[in-house]
Structure formats: C-alpha cells, structure tokens
Amino acid sequence: MRQLTTLKTAAALVLALLANPPGTDALTFTTIDFPGATATFASKINAAGQIVGGFRDASGNDRGFLLDSGTFITIDFPGAVATTAYGINPAGEIVGVYVDPAAVTHAFLLAHGEFTAIDFPGSTSTEAFDINARGEIVGRYNDASGAVHGFLLSKGTFASLDPPGAGYSQAIGINARGQIVGGFEPPGHHGFIFDNDAFALVDFPGGLATDALGIDAAARIVGRYVDAGSVLQGFLRHEAGFVTIAPPGSTFTEAIGINASGDIVGDYVDASGTMHGFLVTQ
C-alpha cells in the first residue's frame, strides 16, 4: 500500500509526550478511517484543513482520497492499477503516486480536475510527496542503476536532492518558503532539512533512525523515528524541542503532515495490526 462520507472520531486521547514544551499538553487525537477500508493513512493537510492520503478497499486495491469538510472523495489516476495521494497545497492542488498496468510507478499532479503524469527524466520510477503554495513539488525517483534520489520540481525544472555522501535519499515535505525535509542514508538513517542550499540533520534525540516528513511555514517539523525498543514513533519538532506522537497502544506511528495551525496528520497501527489515519489538534 505504502513504504506512505464521514470522519470517524475517536475519543480524545492525551498523546504520549517525551517532553512537555508549552502548548503541547492539550493535544487531542482523532482517527481517520475511509468507510469500508481495510487500512487508511493520512499524509498531508493544508491550511483549510483538507487532508489527503490513501486507503486499501475491500477488494485489496490501493486508492487515494481527499477528506474535505468531513466528506471523503476518492482519487484514482485514470487507467492506473493503484493510486495514492500524498500532498496538497493551499489551492487544493494534489500530488501523489500511481502504478500503471505495466507495474511502473509514476508521480502525478491533480489540479483543476485534471491529472498530469510526472516522471523524473531518465528514471525508472518517480513518486511525488508534497507540493507547496508556489507549485513546487518534492519526491523521490529511481535512476537507471536503481539508486534512489530525492528531487525538487520547480517551474518545470527537475533537480536532484542528495545530502553529501548519501547513497539513498528522499524529499518528503516542502513549505511555502521552499524549505524541504526528508531522509537519507548512510551512515545510519537520518532526517534532513534543506534550506538556503544547505543540508542540516534532523535527528530525534536517542533515536536509532529518523525521517523528517513534513514542515510548515514556521519550520515546525513532523516525522518518524525508531526508539530504543525498535518501535516506530511519530514526532513533532518545534522551537521548544521534540515531542513524541504515539497513540496509546499503537505499535507503529508516523506523523507526516502539518499545517499552519499546527494540525498534524499521519498514521498508526493498532494492537490488532490495522492501520488508521489520524488527525492531531491542539
């Protein structure tokens, strides 16, 4: 499904906090499940509160969705065998991934009701994960040798994004200022922020591995890290430090998107092994 109608609302839960910076003690958690789906995840959220993501239907098909004012809208790239929506900007333009009948993975842009395929030149697969207000798109692609690189598509021009020495990289989030976050390896597996043509590390303190997945205009970053017990946890990094985001009882959590209001979306796996999307609000 991913490597990622009606809003179902769970009871408000206090999130597990690694620290207690100001303003984090009132975070609440809402589950997002596409009706009839066997698995759901939420990827990004824009300033209007529109959420995009993906779900697996009862027939085992992977499909994208837009959740707008409590109503789910299915997103399927025409002729594709699988579709996932990963990013949405303030104008409601959506980017994501689809798989064609030949099992080749492509990125797409959905704008004004029209789909456009996106392929990094010379790549064997391309995935788009986010789009900002300027229409800049970030993602990852496989080159002819099979190596994975991050990319930025800006004003019709592609550029690879690889931290120095990286053998694998992916660009997952971009904000209105053009700051980009993602992950890379080796050595180890680290998150990064790319700002003013320079890379800087984003590593959860004590984490075994970190990916930075989303960033807002205030440079608050959300992502995932592997804790000392090898459990994948979500996180928020803001001016006061890092906060763990993990619903009680979850076995896997990712915080993927954050908007200007500080609302966070992502996914978690419950004790039964089912994946759900979530929305975190203050």
Features:
globular, single chain, mainly beta, 282 residues, four-stranded antiparallel sheet, Methylamine Dehydrogenase, Chain H, disordered N terminus
**If classified by CATH, what would the architecture of the domain at 34-218 be?**
7 Propeller
Spatial separation of the terminal alpha carbons: 30 Å
Main sheet characteristics: 4 strands, antiparallel
Q: For the residues shown, what is the average pLDDT?
A: 90
Shape: globular
Helix/strand structural class: mainly beta
The unreliable regions are 1-25
Strand order of the largest sheet: 1-24-23-22
Number of helices: 0
Radius of gyration: 17 Å
CATH superfamily of the domain at 34-218: Prolyl oligopeptidase, N-terminal domain
**Helix amount, in percent?**
under 10%
Strand content: over 45%
- Reading off the top of the CATH hierarchy, the class of the domain at 34-218 is best stated as Mainly Beta
Oligomer: single chain
- SSE run: EEEEEEEEEEEEEEEEEEEEEEEE
Q: How many beta-strand runs?
A: 24
CATH topology of the domain at 34-218: Methylamine Dehydrogenase, Chain H
